[in-house]
Design brief:
The chain is built from seven helices and seven strands, in the order αβαβααααβαββββ. Strands 1, 2, 4, 5 and 6 form a five-stranded antiparallel beta sheet that branches. It is α+β, with helices and mostly antiparallel strands. It has a single domain, classed as Ribonuclease Rh, Chain A (Alpha-Beta Complex). A hairpin with a 5-residue loop joins strand 4 and strand 5. This is Ribonuclease 3-like. Belongs to the RNase T2 family. Keywords: Disulfide bond, Endonuclease, Glycoprotein, Hydrolase, Lyase, Nuclease, Signal. GO terms for molecular function: hydrolase activity; ribonuclease T2 activity; RNA binding.
C-alpha cells in the first residue's frame, strides 16, 4: 500500500515538473514589433480608433514576441495564465498612448493586450511576469523612437516614396541594429512601410542583432503613409 501511494506521488511530481517545463518554455530572443498606424488604416481593411480617441501620429507597439533562432516561435504556452487587467492598472495611460488597438470595433485596448499576453507573453513567463512583460515593451519603445530616427534621416510620413534600403540604414544608424521591415499594400497597390522588427535578448531589455529576420515582402521603394 505504501509502495502504491509513493508511486502515485512520484507520478504526480513528474507531471507537475513537466507542466512547469511547458509553461517555462525556453526561447532564444524576442521580436519587438512596432506598427505604423497610417499603413494599418490605409488599406482595403477598415480601422477603428480606440475609445480614448485617435492615437498620435507615431509608431505603436504591436507586440513583444518570443522567437527561436530557426524562425519558428512558441505560442499560447500557458492556458492557465489569463490576462488580468489589474496587473497593468499602473500602466494604463502609457499603454493607451503607446500600445493602441486599431482593430474594429473600437475598444479600450483590453482585447488587444489580452491577445498579446495569452499568445506571446505566456511563452516568456520564465523571464517576465505579466506586468513586467508590458513594462518591458513600453521601455523598449521609449528607448527606440522610430519616428524621430526616420525624421532625422529626412524620411517623414507624407505619403512619399522612400527607398527601402534608406529606411533600413536610417533605423540601423539610429537604433544600432539591423531592423526587419514588413510592408502592406494600400488600395492603389502601393507597398507601404507597415511594421518594424527589432530583436531583443531574453531579458526583454537589450536590443541585439537579429538571429533571423522576418520576410517582409516589400518593394524596393515604399510609401510612408500619412496618419
Amino acid at each position: 500500500m505504501r509502495f502504491s501511494t509513493s508511486l502515485i506521488l512520484i507520478k504526480l511530481l513528474v507531471i507537475q515538473y513537466l507542466s512547469v517545463l511547458c509553461v517555462s518554455q525556453d526561447f532564444d530572443f524576442f521580436y519587438f514589433v512596432q506598427q505604423w498606424p497610417g499603413a494599418y488604416c490605409d488599406t482595403k481593411h477598415t480601422c477603428c480608433y480606440p475609445k480614448s480617441g485617435k492615437p498620435s501620429a507615431d509608431f505603436g507597439i504591436h507586440g513583444l514576441w518570443p522567437n527561436y533562432k530557426d524562425g519558428s516561435y512558441p505560442s499560447n504556452c500557458d492556458p492557465d495564465s489569463v490576462f488580468d487587467k489589474s496587473e497593468i492598472s499602473e500602466l494604463m495611460s502609457n499603454l493607451e498612448k503607446n500600445w493602441p488597438s486599431l482593430s474594429c470595433p473600437s475598444s479600450n485596448g483590453f482585447r488587444f493586450w489580452s491577445h498579446e499576453w495569452e499568445k506571446h507573453g505566456t511563452c516568456s513567463e520564465s523571464e517576465l511576469e505579466q506586468k513586467d512583460y508590458f513594462e518591458a515593451a513600453l521601455k523598449l519603445k521609449q528607448k527606440v523612437n522610430l519616428l524621430q530616427i526616420l525624421k532625422t534621416a529626412g524620411i517623414v510620413p507624407d505619403d512619399g516614396m522612400y527607398s527601402l534600403e534608406r529606411i533600413k540604414e536610417a533605423i540601423k544608424e539610429g537604433a544600432g541594429y539591423t531592423p526587419g521591415i514588413e510592408c502592406n499594400k494600400d488600395s492603389a497597390g502601393n507597398s507601404q512601410l507597415y511594421q518594424v522588427y527589432l530583436c531583443v535578448d531574453t531579458s526583454g531589455q537589450d536590443i541585439i542583432e537579429c538571429p533571423v529576420l522576418p520576410k517582409g515582402r516589400c518593394a524596393s521603394d515604399v510609401q510612408f503613409a500619412k496618419f
